[in-house]
Write a structure and sequence with these properties.
Blueprint lengths: L7 H16 L8 H14 L17 H9 L7 H8 L3 H7 L1 H8 L8 E4 L8 E5 L5 E5 L6 E4 H18 L4 H23 L3 H6 L4 H8 L5 H16 L2 H8 E4 L2 E4 L6 E3 H4 L2 H19 L4 H7 L3 E8 L10 E7 L6 E9 L16 H12 L8 E6 L5 E8 L14 H22 L2 H8 L4 H30 L9
Helix pairs in contact: 2-18, 4-5, 5-7, 7-8, 7-17, 7-19, 8-17, 8-18, 8-19
Length: 489
């Protein structure tokens, strides 16, 4: 027998073993026709119209209880700032209420197709940042809650955020509805496009801002076009030098982060003098550990910087109270800064409602999810495990604080502009889901009609009312003294 040829049976076994290996992740689920059939069959156990329903469970957890549960694992003196920011408006509350909504989504219908979820896909978690090639991109920009889960949960959180934002801006009901329908319809249409796209073409797809501005220029008014151009120009100025000028200054020839309590507090003021030397020693070890999560070329790049200062920083709305630090490094001189953000990663709000994370480190979970969902990611994106001065062990992820980072001011949009923005967010979310799940089956499930779109509109209207009730409960909790809120910009 020819040593280079195997019996047909042996070849079949080898091919079968290879096919099983490919299918083990669930991301290579068979031939396109099979996947289409699977998607359409899912309508049997989860009709698209069933996504319209939202009825609070009889044993629904108290929303303030859920927020207080999160607060137990956060910096106590910062928690009132979180509540204060959430009380700014029902939309601000929604931004901080990802856990509350995850608890509610757990009882809603599922088609059965999982993707890498953002976990907190509201409209403010999309924005601009620079690619390594120095191109300005639009993409999802927050992955604290990322975890594999039902794609519908991300879509519903995005759609509902659009409705609440539209209502917050005083839009007429018909305009609120249009924003949601355009958003969900945009997701459905983009998923259909991605379903027919070659796999590598999908993976290479990115949304560069200049072509996008050209594409949408005919869809928004001149005033909005001018605002978008201004936003892009501003984003390009938000780099490491701008971050240095915003947060630091030279003192006796050495750069230091400026105090702006309680939002920015240098480490020298966070720790007692007796603790600071130990903190500084540990920090250098932790940065070395973080460097090991980078690719070799980026480790070489990081090694060309030296650590000069660190401070605790309050970030976001829902994240307020988690440990977040800004780390200042310099390269060839004080005019060559690198400002990193080291942010604590805690358990995803989806955990407890879906399968647990495959990663022991929450920081690695965030980084892995970001790399899967984003077209490209920050060259300094990595993670580390650190023991706090109180002995607790915490997970962190690391990225540049600002690298052409920009966001659209939704409050200044008219109904047409918000609808266009919703479609853009939906396109970005659809691409992320298509990269990590069965895009053909999901597209087949959605179909070409607007049945799912209208169902999610009904869900969003019902959930916006629930969000308003929950917002009032937090307000009542503050007024009664149950929790404390602090108004800090």
């Amino acid at each position: 027998m020819d040593a280079h040829r195997l019996p047909v049976a042996a070849v079949s076994c080898r091919e079968l073993a290879f096919d099983v290996a490919l299918n083990s992740s669930g991301r290579y689920p068979g031939a396109p026709a099979e996947r289409v059939a699977r998607g359409k069959a899912a309508r049997g156990h989860a009709p698209r119209s069933s996504h319209a329903a939202f009825e609070p469970a009889g044993d629904r957890p108290d929303p303030v209880d859920l927020l207080e549960g999160q607060a137990k694992h956060r910096v106590p003196e910062l928690v009132p700032i979180r509540y204060g920011r959430m009380l700014a408006s029902p939309f601000a509350f929604y931004r901080g209420a990802a856990l509350i909504m995850a608890s509610d989504l757990a009882g809603t219908p599922r088609s059965g197709f999982e993707v890498e979820c953002c976990g907190d896909a509201h409209l403010s978690n999309f924005g601009l940042f620079a690619s390594p090639e120095r191109r300005l991109l639009f993409d999802i920009n927050d992955f604290d809650e990322t975890l594999p889960g039902p794609w519908e949960w991300d879509v519903k959180r995005l759609a509902c955020s659009m409705l609440i934002a539209a209502a917050n801006s005083g839009f007429a009901v018909k305009d609120q509805e249009r924003v949601v329908l355009d958003t969900v319809g945009g997701y459905r249409r983009r998923m259909a496009g991605f379903a027919s796209m070659p796999t590598l073409d999908l993976w290479y797809t990115r949304f560069e801002i200049e072509p996008l501005l050209h594409e949408i220029s005919g869809q928004v008014g001149r005033r909005m076009q001018k605002r978008l151009r201004k936003m892009v120009s501003k984003a390009r100025r938000r780099d490491n030098m701008q971050a240095f000028e915003r947060f630091a200054d030279e003192v006796d020839g050495e750069p230091h982060i400026l105090a702006d309590p309680p939002l920015v507090v240098p480490a020298t003021e966070v720790f007692h003098l007796s603790e600071f030397a130990e903190f500084e020693r540990r920090l250098r070890d932790y940065l070395s550990s973080y460097a090991e999560t980078l690719t070799p070329d980026r480790r070489v790049l990081l090694e060309q910087y030296r650590l000069v200062d660190v401070a605790r920083k309050v970030v976001g709305v829902g994240s307020v109270g988690t440990n977040a630090w800004i780390v200042l490094l310099v390269g060839r001189g004080n005019d060559d800064p690198l400002v990193l953000q080291v942010k604590e990663a805690q358990q995803s709000v989806f955990e407890g409602y879906v399968a647990p994370s495959a990663y022991e480190s929450a920081g690695e979970r965030v980084v892995a999810g970001q790399r899967m969902m984003q077209a490209v990611s920050d060259i300094f994106l990595g993670w580390l495990l650190a023991e706090s001065m109180d002995g607790s062990v915490r997970d962190y992820y690391v990225r540049q604080l600002r690298d052409w980072k920009g966001s659209i001011v939704v409050e200044k949009m008219d109904p047409q502009a918000l609808a266009v923005y919703g479609e853009l967010c939906a396109a970005t979310l659809a691409r992320a889901h298509a990269r990590t799940g069965d895009r053909i089956a999901i597209s087949a499930y959605l179909g070409s009609g607007d049945s799912f779109d209208r169902a999610v509109l009904d869900f969003s209207a019902a959930y916006a009312e629930q969000n308003e009730r929950d917002y009032r409960k937090l307000l009542a909790a503050v007024e009664s003294g149950r929790v404390e809120a602090a108004a800090v910009d």
